Amino acid sequence: MFAYIDPGTGSMLFTVIIGLATAAFFAIKGLFVKFSFLLKGGKIDKNSIDSNKHEFVIFSDSKRYWNVFKPICDEFEKRKVGLEYWTMSEDDPALSEKYSYVHCLYIGNANSAFAKLNTMNADICLSTTPGLDVYQWKRSKNVKHYVHITHDVCAITAYRMFGVDFYDSILLPGEMLISELRAIEKLRGIPEKQVAVVGSVYMDGLKKQYGEYLKTAPQKKNEITVLVAPSWGVSSILNRFGSRLLKALKETGYNIIVRPHPQSFTSDPQLMENLMKEFPESDSFHWNRDNDNFAVMAKSDILISDFSGIIFDFVFTFGRPVIYADTNLDLSPYDDAWLKEEPWRLKILPEIGRQLKESEFDNLKSFIKNMLEDKSYEEKRNEIMDTAWKHRGESACLVTDYMLNKKKELDKEGK
Fold first, then answer.
1. CATH no. for residue 58?
2. How far apart are CA 408 and CA 250, in angstroms?
3. Are 336 and 369 members of one domain?
4. Where are the alpha helices (DSSP H) in 50-200?
5. Lesser CB count within 10 Å: N end or C end of the chain?
């Protein structure tokens, strides 16, 4: 006699098994590295270890997140408070800044970076990077408090499994994500993390940048520009529809800009190579790989995406229409899979944009034209923005306040 397991539970169990297997892989890999280290005489690269004690450290795994961290670094500089900014990008714009109180440092990549992170000596470490204490990045015994800040406004459970489980505090853009975080903690039986709603540093920066842009914006050409900016992975637009969608877009006669997620070039290099070869650059078809996505969003009239956070960036900053493709999103690799209800970011998509099904590709030109003329979504977009993006224009200040106040708490507790 066989026990019945419903599909939802089965998917969750499969996700757990995959997550545990991945974690086990990195644990074994870590043991192997330690064993190799001992065989080589136990010599440590001194450049990878930092014995200095720091009060505040920001860790960024990519230059892409400088738009999150720059306003915070600027605020520390303004208050004349010392701050370490550690980056894994050798060409991070932070390294060109002329700060007096903020020290920006390239810590290398791969093992050299993790060696430095795993022996960090600091009171507080702030990062957008998920997977702390799950993969190669381990909690340092010399760090008192780890703080996670989101780099978008739409999700806290959209990370790969166990994304933020081992942080101490989470900084959120709005209250709507707290219930999802608490649901995950309860299901896994882990302690509740401290939570603070501080708004979005990233969105504040985009909105400010847009205000400056409008002062000198070039006159809009008499053409429609469609931006295709998906997420990455098996459920993304380019993986699901790829050539079929791009061919349909090209046939519309509109100006098309395709901006793949940077991770696509790492996770799906063959797919990207094939698509870029099949659809080469032309006067009306462009590939975009800029580090900053502002310029390409600013020139676009409409966005086609899937489940990417850029949907909210585009809607909240520019107030322009979005189309999200029906990609039959597989939630099993993500923390979302644990939730009993549909994640907030997916639940509200029909209220801010229109879903595109594969059966509508043949009429894509009229589909886009109708969406550009449809004003019925505008009021709901503003309502959702008010819910998702709190403390507009104040986020960098609030994040800095949080870190400074947390340091006082730790000192008072004698930690």
1. 3.40.50.2000
2. 57
3. yes
4. 66-78, 110-117, 178-188
5. N
- Whether 307 and 383 map to the same domain: the answer is yes
Tokens found for residue 222? 């008499």
Which residue range is the domain that position 295 belongs to? 217-388
- What distance in Å separates the CA atoms of residue 118 and residue 132, rounded to the nearest whole number? 10
What is 59-103 written as a DSSP string?
Answer: EESSGGGHHHHHHHHHHHHHTT--EEEEES-TT-GGGG---SSEE
- 403 and 384 in one domain? no
Residues 198 and 52 in one domain: yes
Both 259 and 376 in one domain: the answer is yes
Burial class (CB in 10 A: 0-12, 13-18, 19+), 128: buried
Q: Please tell me whether residues 184 and 229 are part of one structural domain.
A: no
Q: The pTM is what?
A: 0.82
Angle, nearest 10°, between helix axes 269-278 and 242-250?
Answer: 30
* Domain count for the chain: 2
Same domain, 326 and 378: yes
Q: pLDDT tens per residue, the chain (415 residues)? A: 334 343 344 444 444 454 454 444 444 444 443 444 344 344 444 555 566 899 999 999 999 999 999 999 999 999 999 999 999 999 999 999 999 999 999 999 888 999 999 999 999 999 999 999 998 999 999 999 999 999 888 889 888 889 999 999 999 999 999 999 999 999 999 999 999 999 999 999 999 999 999 988 877 777 899 999 999 988 899 999 999 999 999 999 999 999 999 999 999 999 999 999 999 999 999 999 998 899 999 999 999 999 888 999 999 999 999 999 987 888 888 898 898 888 998 899 999 999 999 999 999 999 999 999 999 998 899 999 999 999 999 999 999 999 999 999 999 988 6
| 3-state secondary structure (DSSP) of residue 201 | helix
Which residue type does 221 have? K
CA atoms within 13 A on the CB side of 257: 21
